[in-house]
Amino acid sequence: MDQQTNGDEIERITDPLEQLALLQELDQRLQTKRLSGELLKHEMELKEQELAEKRHLVDSLRAEREALERRRRELEAALDEEEAKMKERRMRLNRVRTEKELAATRREIETGKETLQRLETELLACMEELENLAQRLGDAEAALAGLERPASEWISSSREKLAALEDELLRDRARRERLAMRIDAGLRAKYERIFARRAGLAVVPVRDGTCLGCHMHVPPQLFNELQRGGAVHLCPNCHRMLIWRPDSQQAEGEPGKAPLESTEK
Question: What pLDDT is recorded for position 259?
């Protein structure tokens, strides 16, 4: 946590504008961390979805292969059975004694030939489909193998980062609550309305008579009053809260924004 926002700093600052500036720093930090957490969650969801889709594809192709293997075995068994029947019919053809039996056996043989042809055609198609499926399954398994380990490691690392980020958010929210309780409720509500309307920038410095929120000059009398302190003034143009600090303080960071704590680990 930035030294400016530790517990001692919260207790020490009594000037309302400085309290609001510190509150803004915390709010900006919270906002940044919330957005970082949401982005990380979204990226994790996409990565998990991609991994799940590739796993599902591999599982589906394996199930399809098993079904085709069962069908191949069924066709081979049916083909063997029909070939055995054809052998028996041909042997019986030599034993028939009447024209009627001969005609019936010949019809059975012709029907058996048609059945054999159909089974052979189906078996060939099944084997071709199995060959094509083996290629598709191999490609899918290779794609999954190339993604699974790095994706799983990234997801695990991201979960740890997200947990650390949520811990930081809890601590920052507690600090914000402590600070907010020390600020007049009406003034705090005014600040929060401006913060929401002005994209997270409610308290801005004035430098050389210029508001660093909208970069418009403020009236000289207002600038003099800001330097004297003791009251909260709004910029006549952008209606942000104005705060004056010597140039040496303004040069320490970006004008109008408190430095944000990095969320990188």
Answer: 34
**How far apart are the C-alpha atoms of 100 and 80, rounded to whole Å?**
28
* pLDDT tops 90 at residue 10: no
* CA–CA distances in Å: residue 70 to residues 63, 75, 129, 130, 253: 11, 9, 13, 11, 72
**Which residues are CB-neighbours of 129 under 8 A, at least 6 positions away?**
68
Question: Which residues is 234 bridged to in the sheet?
Answer: 241
Q: How far is CA 128 from the centre of its chain?
A: 40
Which alpha helices (DSSP H) does the chain contain, by range?
A: 7-12, 16-93, 99-180, 185-197, 220-228, 247-250
Say how far apart CA 41 and CA 163 lie, in whole Å: 11
pLDDT for res 4: 44
Alpha-carbon distance of 81 to 79, in angstroms, equals 5
Residue type at position 36: S
Q: Are 217 and 210 in contact (CB under 8 A)?
A: yes
The pLDDT confidence band at residue 93, using thresholds 50, 70 and 90, is confident
At 194, the amino acid letter reads I
Listing from the earlier edge strand, what are the strands of the sheet with 241-244?
210-211, 203-207, 241-244, 233-234
Nearest-5° Cα angle at 21, 15 to 25: 140
Residue whose pair of structure tokens reads 């969801």 in the numeric block: 45
Q: Is 211 helix (H, G, I), strand (E, B) or coil?
A: strand
pLDDT at site 171? 95
234-241 average pLDDT score = 95
For 23, 79, 127, 166, 192, the CA distances from 171, given in Å and listed in that order, are: 14, 74, 64, 9, 20
